[in-house]
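User: My collaborator sent over this chain with a note saying "see what the structure looks like." That's all I know about it. Can you take a look?
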Amino acid sequence: MKSAVKIGLLALASMPLAACVGGYGMQVGYGAQPYAYDGWYDGSYGPIYDGYWGTDNYFYYRHAEGEGAYVRGDRAHFAHQAPQGPHNYQAIHGTTAPRQGVRAPHFPSGGHAGGGHGGGGHQGHP
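Assistant: Without extra context I'll predict from the sequence alone. Here is the result:
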């Protein structure tokens, strides 16, 4: 009887892995391929952890890895190109791979981060 219980528990433990392989109703697309971003930021929202340029041409960012949603920044504080004339903008560079459960509106691959694997990443931030 003990071996039957062990086999049952082993089968239950492997179910989440099978869900990842077969899709199991999950939205896949986030986490598989990190999205690289470049731009300019004036520091108005404080330090940022990571972000991405949305399909609506706004920059979405998070202050920390554990935040459950990306916030849309104002176009006055983020720019694709270096602003002309005197300014306090600094270059930002990095990659984003929203993890499961993170809300990422207008993410370049579409939808929201309801599935997939991976975590947010960052590099070279001011």
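A starting point for your reply to your collaborator: Residues 5-32, 110-126 have pLDDT under 50 and may be disordered.
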